[in-house]
Specification:
Elements (H helix, E strand, L loop, with lengths): L8 H6 L26 E7 L5 H14 L3 E7 L5 H10 L6 E5 L4 H4 L11 H7 L13 E2 L2 E2 L2 E13 H7 L7 H14 L15 H14 L6 H4 L10 H15 L12 H9 L5 E5 L3 H7 L5 E4 L1 E2 L9 E2 L1 E9 L5 H14 L2 H11 L13 H10 L15 H4 L1 H10 L6 H16 L28
Parallel strand pairs: 1-2, 1-3
Antiparallel strand pairs: 3-11, 4-5, 6-7, 6-8, 6-11, 9-10
Pfam families: SBP_bac_8
Keywords: Signal, Transport
Family: Belongs to the bacterial solute-binding protein 1 family.
């Protein structure tokens, strides 16, 4: 079967993906069956993995061989341009039948007032969810009662550490949050290295606030609340736990645990501190591993997700990140949508996911995949926590809350003149303002009251 490989965005925008006129459907209808094998159809597939173009083309070749009545035209768009390209394609009625986009950023594509850019995947979710290493990953693409994205491969940032230095100093990988904090203290007391280099300019320091906030929510039962699951659990009057989280991270910052002036450092700058052996640990993505190890040939590098307090250490860890996901166009014929679902199902199958693990060194979503490289196997073990207890928000966020990370960072750096409590209140107020903004949420939504009393827990780790 012939395929079109369009790499340049200009070529992409000049292409026309023809929608076959037979069997028209309304937006949002999910096909309930496979395409009739006697029906020939051509669909388009846009992905953002130019570095894996050959592998993806081989996978599509195999799909076409198994389904000779389906032709797939491939196009490639850079990851940092794909949202604008998809938006333009939707407006010009050339939205690809299947496309990749971030599961955790689907909200703007399906909540806009001018139309829904992805079809529902509720039936497919029920069919294949058991094969996923992190079932909660689907919740990142769950919006207003529908699943709109199938997680395909994980993307996220772990704590990389120099195992060679750790062995020399007698430090060990932490398995609990208490051990993690003690490790930070020990590295700081040693005086030789920055404990954890972080790109504060790109909000990496806030990962620690996110992590501890998640752990509090697990311990006090908030993660089981209906309001939590849709991202609008009503804030409690008593915010002392949240205040303790913010104050702990600010205390670390004041002691230069992340390096001097870390709030103005980029991710690249933080990694350079690590590769130059000025830092014992750093936040980084698995995609950075090759570059890091190429510079640090004499050092052994390992990584871990931020561990939870001892009471729940076996339940959850925190990884900042999400998933490259797969979605399909609902503005297509029934035959095209049926073929699109078949392609998505194929791409997350055991066979294809194993191929991706073997040939691309990606951390993929299928729990049955085997990683033959021990380093990537160790990374995959930590990456399984990407999306743990994820929420599927049922409203749009906008300008009011767009600056919340900056507000958080300003508090951490001590430049905002706000207390922790005032910072938390301002962030909550901004979220609520978006929820109530009828220009982006029609009708507006409100906080969801807590249904059950909060559970008590040992707060020693917050002190």
């Amino acid at each position: 079967m012939k395929k079109l490989l369009a790499v340049l965005i200009g070529l992409l925008l000049s292409c026309s993906f023809v929608f076959v006129g037979c069997h028209p459907t309304t937006i949002g209808d999910e096909p309930t069956g496979d395409l009739d094998p006697n029906t020939e159809v051509t669909i388009s597939f846009m992905h953002m993995w130019s570095e894996h173009a050959t592998v993806m083309e081989s996978i599509i070749d195999d799909f076409e061989e198994e389904n000779p009545n389906i032709t797939v035209n491939i196009s490639i768009t850079p990851y940092n341009q794909i949202e604008q390209v998809l938006q333009a394609a939707f407006i010009s009625e050339t939205l690809p039948n299947v496309y990749t986009f971030y599961t955790h950023y689907m909200n703007p594509l399906v909540s806009a007032s001018d139309g829904v850019m992805a079809g529902s995947l509720n039936n497919l979710h029920g069919e294949i969810i058991d094969s996923f290493i992190q079932p909660d990953s689907w919740e990142m693409g769950y919006i207003n009662g529908n699943y709109y994205s199938v997680p395909f491969r994980a993307t996220g940032e772990l704590v990389f550490y120099n195992k060679t230095i750790f062995d020399q100093k007698g430090w060990t990988k932490p398995e609990t949050f208490e051990a993690f904090e003690q490790l930070m203290d020990d590295i700081y007391a040693d005086g030789t290295y920055i404990p954890l280099a972080a790109g504060g300019k790109e909000d990496q320091i806030t990962y620690l606030i996110n992590a501890m906030s998640l752990f509090v929510s697990v311990l006090d039962g908030s993660v089981d609340e209906p309001g939590y699951k849709v991202g609008r659990l009503e804030p409690d009057e008593d915010i002392s736990d949240a205040v303790a989280v913010y104050e702990k991270v600010r205390g670390w910052y004041e002691q230069d645990y992340f390096g001097e002036g870390a709030i103005g450092v980029t991710k690249t700058g933080a990694i350079q501190q690590f590769t130059s052996r000025n830092a014992a640990m750093v936040f980084a993505n698995v995609n950075n591993l090759g570059d890091i190890t190429s510079v640090m040939g004499n050092d052994e590098i390992d990584a871990f997700a931020i561990p939870a307090p001892e009471a729940i250490a076996d339940e959850v860890k925190y990884v900042y990140g999400g998933y490259d996901g797969l979605s399909y166009s609902p503005v297509a014929s029934e035959d095209e949508m049926a073929a699109s679902i078949m392609l998505i199902r194929y791409l997350v199958s055991d066979e294809v996911q194993q191929t991706l693990a073997d040939r691309t060194q990606s951390i993929i979503v299928n729990k049955n995949a085997v990683y033959h490289d021990p380093t990537y196997a160790a990374f995959a073990e930590e990456y399984q926590y990407v999306g743990a207890h994820a929420t599927g928000i049922d409203y749009m966020t906008g300008d009011h809350s767009a600056g919340n990370n900056s507000i958080m960072s300003s508090y951490i750096a001590g430049t905002s003149n706000l207390t922790a409590a005032q910072t938390i209140q301002l962030i909550n107020d901004n979220v609520y303002a978006d929820m109530q903004d009828n220009l982006i949420n029609d009708p507006p939504v409100d906080w969801y009251p807590r249904q059950n009393p909060k559970k008590d827990f040992d707060r020693t780790w917050l002190q």
